[in-house]
Amino acid sequence: MSELYDCRIAFAQALLELVASDPRVVVVTNDSVGSSNIAHIRERFPERVINLGIAEQNMIGVGAGLANGGKIPFLCGASCFLTGRALEQIKVDLAYSRSNVKLCGMSAGLAYGPLGATHHSIEDLAWTRVLPELVVSVPADPAETAQAVRTAAALEGPVFLRLSRMPVPAVHPPDYRFRVGRAVRLREGDDVTLIACGTMVSRALDAAALLQAEGVSARVLNMATVQPLDREAIEQAAAETGAIVTVEEHSVRGGLGGAVAEVVVATRPVPMRLLGVPGTFAPTGSPEFLFQHFGLTPRGIAQTALDLLNRKVTHVGPLRTRY
Predict the structure, then answer these.
(1) Which strands form 192-196's sheet, in the order they lie side by side?
(2) How far apart are CA 33 and CA 155, in angstroms?
(3) Which neighbouring-strand residues pair with 72?
(4) Which residues are known catalytic residues?
(5) Cα 38 vs. chain centroid, distance in angstroms?
(6) How many other C-beta atoms lie within 10 A of the C-beta of residue 128?
(7) What angle do the packed helices 142-154 and 7-21 form, to 10 degrees?
(8) Model-wide pTM > 0.85
(9) Across-strand partners of 290?
(10) Domains along the chain with CATH numbers
């Protein structure tokens, strides 16, 4: 069984290194020091961490002001509140103004499952990816998370990093290099393409292993940047495999699946399935219960692909999942 990692640790370590090496980098939070895993940054650099309390809209304005003063602010808070409460400020103060602010949406998706629909962050990609000038990234493992943080700091302009608290395995090789707007092909395949982001990437890889036992060759793409999107990788997948399943810890309305479908329908129409939360409020329960409930498991992903291909299940071999 592969070791699992909390990507918030990689996020916080990369952010600490940036704070230590660049006096322009500051951290702003909305009373989320613990959940953002930045307590050790505050201990070492107390003057570089600003806690504004539960005031997300104000936090965006403060971040924009800091950026106007030459700082590189990283704004850390629960993604459901950071994006939902402050969407107008994100639109106007950051995207429209092209402010050099880095939004860090913590505990995105269904990670706050027991707290119910108010804390599920399953709309944040839909809200943010439609905003011009805003880069939207969803890292899949610790290495990619750390690189995405460093890349965000180096970019001039607003960035939204969607980060989970759900433990995940490493999915990238040691020499992997994150690049904005580039998907990564983690597994070759000719029959169907599984396009995933964030916590769903490792599950898509496990689903591809199950599909192999069914005689189905599944390509797996990690679409770590939802905006800008790697259109070339999507078009190539449609042309070469003829079927696409998108998998995301998000509503199927407006997120990764919608973004991929926009490319497919305009360039290379092929059969598709969008797997995620099916346009409903998610119930209250543990993240694992919710993943099972919505079919966001290796078996659920594999079955969706088989249904898309109209393949009858003949054998499902044992799979020692990591979860």
Answers:
(1) 184-187, 218-222, 192-196, 244-251, 272-277
(2) 25
(3) 25
(4) 56
(5) 20
(6) 28
(7) 30
(8) yes
(9) none
(10) 7-162 (3.40.50.970), 184-309 (3.40.50.920)
Sheet holding 72-78, edge to edge: 49-51, 25-29, 72-78, 102-106, 159-162, 135-137, 225-227
The pLDDT value given to residue 323: 45
Q: Which residue has the tokens 């598709």?
A: 272
C-alpha of 114 from chain center: 20
Quote the tokens at residue 84: 């939902």
Taking the chain (323 residues) in consecutive chunks of 10 residues, what is each chunk's mean pLDDT?
Answer: 88 97 97 90 96 95 98 97 96 98 97 95 97 98 97 98 95 93 97 98 98 96 98 98 98 98 97 97 96 97 96 49 45
DSSP E strand boundaries for 241-322: 244-251, 272-277
Distance of CA 201 to the CA centre of its chain: 10
CA pseudo-torsion sign 57, 62, 63, 65? positive
Q: How far is CA 286 from CA 110, 139, 313, in A?
A: 8, 22, 29
- Give pLDDT tens digits for 36-68: 889 999 999 999 999 999 999 999 999 999 999
- In angstroms, the CA 191 to CA 256 distance is 21
